Amino acid sequence: MTADEPRSMTADELRALVLRVLGNIAPEADLARLAPDVSFREQLDLDSMDFLNFAIALHEALHVDIPEADYARIATLDGCVEYLGARTHPEGSAGS
To answer: Is 67 buried (19+), middle (13-18) or exposed (0-12) by CB count in 10 A?
Structure first.
């Protein structure tokens, strides 16, 4: 694997990474109370720049391109973990 290839991670590792990135974007947020199926923008009061910074931080951490057309797929915790799992595992499934 080269530095530019997506790093394969389990679903739990991806979830932890997403929460860490969100914590950097919204440090005042209580991430332990984050509903997995409700949008980050709604729960964390993220604006467009915050969400863009979130997508960029995920890209930098995982070396996964996230086109703007896919932003809706990373808008919730469960959706984001599923999307990133599919993008980092060529066979399309993230382990637990």
So the answer is: exposed
Q: Which of 30, 37, 14, 23 is nearest to 84 (CA)?
A: 14
Distances (CA, A) of 17 to 59, 80: 11, 11
Q: Please state the domain extents for the chain.
A: 13-27+34-88
* pTM for this prediction: 0.85
User: Does the 13-27+34-88 domain belong in CATH 1.10.1200.10?
Assistant: yes
DSSP track, 7-52:
PP--HHHHHHHHHHHHHHH-TTS-GGG--TTS-HHHHH---HHHHH
Tens digit of pLDDT for each residue in 53-80? 999 999 999 999 999 999 999 999 999 9
Cβ–Cβ under 8 Å, residues 48 and 75: no
Residue pair 37/81 in contact (Cβ under 8 Å)? The answer is no
* Count of C-beta atoms within a 10 Å radius of residue 14: 27
